[in-house]
Design brief:
The chain is about 20% helix and about 40% strand. It is an alpha+beta fold and about 150 residues long.
């Protein structure tokens, strides 16, 4: 799988913690979802300006494609973009990269999450707030798939 990084505007560095490493010196497979979570939260806070106090977001599903190992000595970053927006759910895709000795980025992992706009007080999904929807559309166009179903 090859992702065109030029399609991604949002990128954030990810710190590798000692606790992320397994006995072989690699980042444990279980940690990748945490890296995606760090990236999602920064995107929602810095770009979408999602008001999590008035409308929450829950995960419906996450997928991970492991392509290359990441070690404690790697310098990594994660790209994210919204790829689909429905009525109450939306998809975000991730590309986790490490910088090689030549200063180029190598894709290590790709992933996708289905996110659901959620009303915690009433325990149900709700339509994506219009302001947040518009911010995602404006930031991640072109190529964003939108529907209203």
């Amino acid at each position: 799988m090859s992702e065109d990084l030029s399609n991604f505007k949002f990128k954030t560095p990810i710190p590798i913690r000692f606790s992320d490493i397994d006995a072989y010196g690699n980042v444990s497979n279980t940690i990748y979802l945490t890296y995606f979570e760090i990236t999602r939260l920064r995107y929602w806070r810095d770009i979408v300006e999602w008001d999590l106090n008035s409308c929450g977001v829950i995960l419906g599903r996450s997928e991970i494609n492991y392509l290359k190992p990441i070690t404690v000595d790697d310098n990594i970053a994660c790209y994210l973009r919204t790829s689909r927006i429905g009525n109450s759910s939306f998809d975000v895709i991730y590309v986790l990269v490490k910088t090689n000795a030549d200063g180029e980025e190598e894709i290590c992992t790709t992933g996708k999450s289905v996110c659901i706009s959620y009303d915690y007080a009433n325990n149900r999904s709700v339509p994506i707030p219009q302001r947040e929807r518009q911010r995602m559309i404006e930031y991640d166009e072109p190529g964003l798939i939108t529907n209203t179903n």
